[in-house]
């Protein structure tokens, strides 16, 4: 199906849709480094421009609109979050595009914190706004580790199906489990995920295989907690100062922080996915992304919607 992508970033969500066989016909982001990354790996169909300045008649028609709208205002990691945070209204750009383009389906992604901000009232308003466009809206909190991503990343997935189609979206069943329940294999551990990656301090040809020298100090705060090599990594975040250091996950060996390449692997990006910009920017691009593996599994479910019309 033809897909339009908003707030595309470095392309994690889009890559998943491409791997599932869909075609991204137009994409947009304002972050220049991320757009360079996207163009290198996914194509020149991305526009580096403020979405509020783009008219919807400039955007091609499509079957699906997708977007992980900016979440800093919603994140539980943002202790100053509140209902009036100006970043919380960017979803209205997604609303505008969906209203004007009337795709068959849409998918919106955000952090777990969106469910609780304003005691849940903000999320209720978002769901209502989507539904009033003429869509049946469903949402679910998914853990990326349940789908083979070596990271316990909780994300809210919102899916809309245009009401006149009379179809129902089915969220994917987990492919992995925490304790090998039923026939499902166990969550992928961080050590398994990183097992084939060479030592960054020795000669190698991997792109983006450099790491922050910001000192490790295991004090219990985000970015300063030791990793259990036998479990998935905790959530990869995009938080930090302009030097990129304080929230980068430590390597499971406890001796250094993960390289950009290792962090991208924890996010399920392929090894040949090249990121542009200084390391601080690359870390941020990776932390902001949707894991492509999770995105692919969700994207495959849209074929089931098409099957319902037969």
Structure description:
- The chain has 310 residues and is an alpha/beta fold.
- It has a domain at 2-177 and 290-307: Rossmann fold (3-Layer(aba) Sandwich), CATH 3.40.50.150.
- 25% of the residues lie in helices and 14% in strands.
- It contains 8 helices and 7 strands.
- The protein has a 7-stranded mixed sheet with strand order 3-2-1-4-5-7-6, sandwiched between helices.
- Helix 1 packs across helix 8.
- Mean pLDDT is 90; it is low at 242-246.
Determine the mean pLDDT.
90
Q: Give me the CATH architecture of the domain at 2-177 and 290-307, please.
A: 3-Layer(aba) Sandwich
Q: Could you give the order of strands across the largest sheet? A: 3-2-1-4-5-7-6
Structural category: alpha/beta
Q: Low-confidence parts, pLDDT < 50 over ≥5 residues?
A: 242-246
Please give the number of β-strands: 7
> Helicity level, as a percent range?
25-40%
In DSSP terms (H or I, runs of 4 or more residues), the helix count works out at 8
| Approximate strand percentage | 5-15%
Element order, helices and strands?
EHEHEEHEHEEHHHH
What name goes with the CATH superfamily of the domain at 2-177 and 290-307? Answer: Vaccinia Virus protein VP39
CATH class categorisation of the domain at 2-177 and 290-307: Alpha Beta
**How is the main sheet built?**
7 strands, mixed
CATH names the topology of the domain at 2-177 and 290-307 as Rossmann fold
How far is it from the N-terminal to the C-terminal residue, by CA? 16 Å
């Amino acid at each position: 199906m033809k897909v339009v992508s908003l707030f595309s970033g470095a392309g994690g969500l889009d890559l998943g849709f491409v791997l599932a066989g869909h075609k991204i016909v137009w994409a947009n982001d304002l972050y220049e480094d991320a757009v360079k990354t996207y163009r290198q790996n996914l194509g020149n169909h991305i526009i580096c421009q403020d979405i509020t300045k783009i008219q919807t008649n400039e955007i091609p028609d499509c079957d699906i609109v997708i977007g992980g709208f900016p979440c800093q205002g919603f994140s539980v990691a943002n202790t100053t979050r509140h209902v009036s945070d100006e970043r919380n209204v960017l979803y209205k750009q997604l609303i505008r595009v969906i209203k004007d383009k009337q795709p068959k389906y849409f998918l919106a992604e955000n952090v777990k914190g969106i469910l609780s901000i304003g005691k849940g009232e903000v999320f209720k308003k978002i769901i209502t706004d989507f539904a009033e466009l003429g869509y049946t809206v469903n949402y679910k909190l998914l853990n990326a580790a349940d789908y083979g991503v070596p990271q316990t990343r909780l994300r809210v997935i919102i899916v809309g199906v245009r009401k006149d189609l009379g179809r129902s979206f089915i969220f994917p069943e987990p492919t992995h489990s925490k304790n090998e329940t039923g026939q499902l294999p166990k969550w992928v551990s961080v050590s398994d995920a990183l097992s084939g990656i060479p030592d960054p301090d020795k000669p190698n040809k991997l792109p983006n295989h450099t790491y922050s020298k910001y000192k490790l100090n295991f004090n219990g705060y985000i970015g300063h907690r030791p990793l259990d090599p036998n479990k998935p990594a905790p959530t990869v975040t995009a938080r930090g100062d302009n030097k990129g250091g304080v929230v980068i996950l430590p390597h499971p060996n406890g001796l250094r922080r993960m390289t950009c390449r290792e962090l991208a692997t924890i996010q399920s990006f392929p090894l040949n996915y090249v990121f542009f910009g200084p390391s601080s920017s690359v870390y941020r691009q990776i932390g902001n992304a949707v894991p492509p593996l999770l995105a692919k599994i969700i994207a495959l479910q849209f074929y089931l919607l098409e099957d319902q019309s037969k």
